[in-house]
Amino acid sequence: MDHSGHGTSMDLPPFTLGRGLEFSPDAFFLTGCLLALALYGWGVLRLRRRGDSWQLGRTLFFVAGVLTVLLAMCTRLNEYGMVMFSVHMVQHMIISMVSPILLLLGAPVTLALRALPVAGRGRTGPREVLLALLHSRYMRIVTHPAFTIPLFIASLYGLYFTPLFDYLMESRIGHIGMMIHFLATGLVFFWPIMGVDPGPHRPGYVMRMLELFAGMPFHAFFGIALMMASEPMVDAYASPPASLGIDTLADQHAAGGIAWAFSEIPSVLVLLALVFQWYRSEERQARRMDRAADRDGDKELEAYNAYLASLHARQR
Q: Is the pLDDT of residue 85 over 90?
């Protein structure tokens, strides 16, 4: 017997971590993940063959990000997530808050810009299209906090507390589309904040931290609302299969706790990444100033000393 019309067995045994992590590939996400790894690997090899370097850490971050997508969508978590709200929330949080952070730390856009060949004069190739997109008005809009923060919030309240969620859960295409939306929302939210790739919206580090924490309280309130509800709030999970042996409200409360916890943990990780990036930026700026001082004999310091001397002479 199928659940929601796309092949999830209604007779799933009670959930355990071991059962949830069993390999159960979704063709769409498996193909997408393998393609992403192949393209990233091609870019790294192309740089290496021409003698350019690429940080190993970035590669590891990107691979880890792809593996988290595979974990959420190509194991039996995907099957249990169709009938258990708590497991679905684990999928949602991984796809929207863990995978984007790791993928962005892999700097895939920077790699593409360095690896793709430059088209000839008067011609347009993939690299030129990517550059045009990065500098487009569309990209300035979708990476602006006035867009990303409301989108991040609407992905919770506008989805789970309206009939839209139940509608999407009725078909495999709807479910895939929802997961793609979660991933895309996470990418556009975290890219301006802690992504290392070039982008049109790149505020200072203090503003990035404010952007990070602007959406987190709404995330926490969403989790608390699920935890404190006295009745099922999502129809798709109101009647779980008897074979699971779970209580609907208890499962919903667990989903709320997962959502609340994930509003805190990734935020701390992103904050640490921001502080590290800020520190590295200050280091690079200090080195540039030192090199400039070595080239011009520290003229700026000499000019400042001359200014102090002139003030002293006027006071005499």
A: yes
| Confidence tier at 152 by pLDDT (50, 70, 90) | confident
Q: Residue 204 — φ and ψ, nearest 5°? A: -70, 170
Residues 246-302: pLDDT tens digits? 999 999 999 999 998 877 777 777 777 777 777 766 666 666 655 655 566 556 556
* Closest to 148 in 3D by CA, of 199, 184, 176, 101: 184
pLDDT tops 70 at residue 311: no
Q: What is the 3-state secondary structure (H, E, C) of 87-141?
A: HHHHHHHHHHHHHHHHHHHCCHHHHHHHHCCCCCCCCCCHHHHHHHHHCCHHHHH
